[in-house]
Amino acid sequence: MAPRKGKEKKEEQVIALGPQVAEGENVFGVCHIFASFNDTFVHVTDLSGKETICRVTGGMKVKADRDESSPYAAMLAAQDVAQRCKELGITALHIKLRATGGNRTKTPGPGAQSALRALARSGMKIGRIGKFQLIYSVRSICNKRDMAVLFFLNPCLRPIDGPLVSRAGLYIEFIRICIRYLHLKIWANQIFFFFFCAFFVLTSKMKKPY
To answer: How many whole angstroms separate alpha carbon 65 and alpha carbon 34?
Structure first.
């Protein structure tokens, strides 16, 4: 009787992902942590920020809506991100932390600190840590009248690129506000506007502060 053939064990080849680096060399990525009071996003990209490597949110790790912004959900999200980064050969991360910003709160949510700690405890080396905020735009301000007042409170304010009101429009709108509250007559309005136009032409030729 012929001997039975046993099952041959096949060696599984481990496919290494990510760049080939020397021993002891770190491969950096950028971790964008957006921590609001509704959710926490942990988003890892390459150094250019154009290629997404991994993105996990606190809402993906919990079932209850009220727990999406909790430190526990942020910790679970950061652990999944760290595991995926290790699979792709990323060993170190630069941190970019931001809150909601704009005309809302500039304080990060409760999950920011927990996510950062979880990344460090998962074996990821931390590079630079920076805090970035959104700035005001015309869309975040009520109307052109408020923008004119804001411009005159800070004359060095540089208008953001886009469909914004011009510098002359801000001057005119501010003058209209002053005239409306001072209750000037029509002829005084015209004379004041004439001198204002002359003043604007002279000052527009001067060197701008930026």
So the answer is: 17
Residue 164: count of CB within 10 angstroms of its CB = 15
Every domain of the chain and the residues it spans? 28-131
Q: What is the pLDDT of residues 124-162, one digit of tens each?
A: 999 999 888 766 554 444 455 455 555 554 444 444 444
Residue with structure tokens 């606190």? Answer: 58
Task: Answer whether CATH 3.30.420.80 is correct for domain 28-131.
Answer: yes
pLDDT value of position 1: 55
Convert the pLDDT of each residue in 79-102 to its tens digit.
999 999 999 989 999 999 999 887
Cross-strand bridge partners of residue 52: 45
